[in-house]
Fold this sequence. Notes:
This protein has helices spanning about 5-15, 25-45, 60-65, 70-80, 110, 250-265, and strands at about 20-25, 85, 90-95, 100-105, 115, 120-125, 135, 150, 165, 175, 180-185, 190-195, 205, 210, 215-220, 225-230, 240. The protein is α+β, with helices and mostly antiparallel strands.
Amino acid sequence: MPKVLTQAQVDDFHEFGYCAPIDVMSEDEAHALKLRVEAAEAAYPEDLSPTNRNNTHLAFTCVDEAAHHPVIVGAVSDLIGEDILLYGSVLFFKEPKSTGFVSWHQDATYMGIEPHTFITPWLALTPSNPQLGCIKAIPGSHKDGIRLHHDTFGEDNILTRGQTVAEVDEAAAVDLILRPGQMSIHHARTVHGSMPNHSNERRMGIALQAYMGPDSRQTIGEHLVQVVQGCDSGGDFAVLPRPGTDRDAAGLKARTQANANWVDILYEGASKVRAY
């Protein structure tokens, strides 16, 4: 029996390739976390600029605590088992009335991780709805394998390469609407994306991309992970530490190493490399 998710939520994930909404924390707790993230942004703007929001869990305790939140970890274990590794994280912020969007894509396409059993929780720190540019997902698309993508490097496309699925039935898309403190979880092959933020509010979320089991392997670059739970038997991966304090020496080193590795992985075979 699942520990955090209901059986209906587990069934939804396997049937549709996503599950939402999932309660993680109260709105007050989410607001407190949001304030900590914003304080870190104000104190260290270069470390959390729009082109430097990958793997902040390795250097900032507020994101690290979210990555190891017992409800998130419990929900993940309901879907992939007790032994859990974390590949990385991304802060997805959309400013009010901004043009940034995320094109239709599958996470498994460029992450170089096999097998495609890894999953990504997306934790909302603010409301996330169609007006603010919430995630949209195509139900059942995770069952079809990897689809053809092409790189656009679009100026307003938030993705690294602007990678885009060639053909998507947008009429089938489902909005994953979340209140602050709720999350969605999607499968590695689920086709998803999001539209611009047309509201007067900032949309803020943390993508924990992604949790996987110890049988996962990196086919491009180094296999750098953080151990979240279990995995005592070891595996084909190098373990990165949790930060003791914000921007401690070990955390900054780990984040620099992970981000450099991501460039090698995410831009493998690309015609150019962007600043993130």
